[in-house]
Amino acid sequence: MIKLCYSHLHNFCKIVHNSIIRRRCIKIRFISLLGIVTSKLLIFISNKLYKGGTNFPGKVALKFDKNILSKISKNYTAILVTGTNGKTTTTNMIYSILKNSGIGVISNSTGANLYTGIISCFLKNYSFFSKAKNTYAVIEVDEANLKFVTKHVKPEMICITNLFRDQLDRYGEVNTTLSKIVEGIKNTPETILVLNGDEPLLGKMDLPNKILYYGFSSPASNSNKTSVNLDSKFCKVCSEPYIYNFTIYNHLGDYYCPKCGNTRPKLDFSVNNILNLDSNGSCVLIDNKKFFINQAGTYNIYNALCAFSVSKLLGVKDKFIYDSLKTLDSKFGRQELIKINDKNVKIILVKNPAGFDEALNSINLDKKSKSLALLLNDNYADGTDVSWIWDVGFENLDNNTIQHIILSGIRLYDLSIRLKVAGFNEKRFSLCDDYDSLLDRISKGNDSMIYLLATYTAMTSFRKFLNNKGYISNLW
Prior knowledge:
The active site is at residue 385. The protein is of the alpha/beta class and 476 residues long.
């Protein structure tokens, strides 16, 4: 009798428990749905009223459901792109190749690469009525945010472009940046890693993941001179200084350690030769096939090589890769060309010495008369310490073809001092402490080509200013 009563009581409790669980699941699903609806409404309003809004909708969605990313990304095959320089351009290249080949794909192409911005990207593309099938999500991810994303998204591939000193107040030195990325990779051991083999910090990776490497199989120039400001010059195994068979730029190249034998890993994809390199782009041999890249600079060859590597792993035909790299649209301050009256203004994002040096090298490829505009801010997103400008090789800039230098941004006077020390005559400077005077100086200049190099918040705020003035149609 007692056993029978106990059995009935047990079954009753089980029914009640299951009922509570079902109600709780229904409640959770409702809250998640409410979060998606609210956030998509915010995206719509932001696009209409503020011409964008990349992070706030994601923040709101997280208030409703802290696991929202798992739900809105589950029908996509993800490819994550991280690293210091080249994330946005590489992401845009991969996205363009997949799209042009007929593959369904979404991307956070504006560079909103923080956790909340990535959530906003998936929310924007979320559909209540149809599920994404055979659709890829090519997502740029901030190095410190990778660990948050991979808790919810198990990508097919993670690409790492390079590791340079950047925003030292936020990231610290390059080894700290690497540890943040590795923390994110450890959440997803089944993911394929596509890594820059010329980056010494990415060799000897003690990870269970399948790893493929890309890099240069031959030097980019006849010079084998290494910079005094290498960001990673010591062997990660024994701390002995590396020796290079050749360098491409900064610490990227064919390296080896003379003490312990640590050497560059075998390359799975490689640039065999640079056939031509000028201010319009480059013609290169990748895996012994000719490609034209319409983005100037050696650093963009690396970006294209990474995109090529991912595309080949996905089985994309060379024709689509070739056509996409040749016709790629420059977006959001990544060699973006804007017309201001009769002037051509090319906006280039700069944020650290390695990237700034490569931007200056790409400007040196243009042998015509031109002007230079430099915008330096010290907001949180730029890095509050601007002492890094003293590691930029302004001395290597060909000032014979530069007729005028326009300086603006919060720290414009720091720039003016740095350029004076580099040997530039201050009589060629124009100091503009607001965007109206900057625009006026650009408009009244004698040169038809102005290269505008700006840190992140300077670039985004000046683009907003140009959008309000009607010079840019799409803000994001």
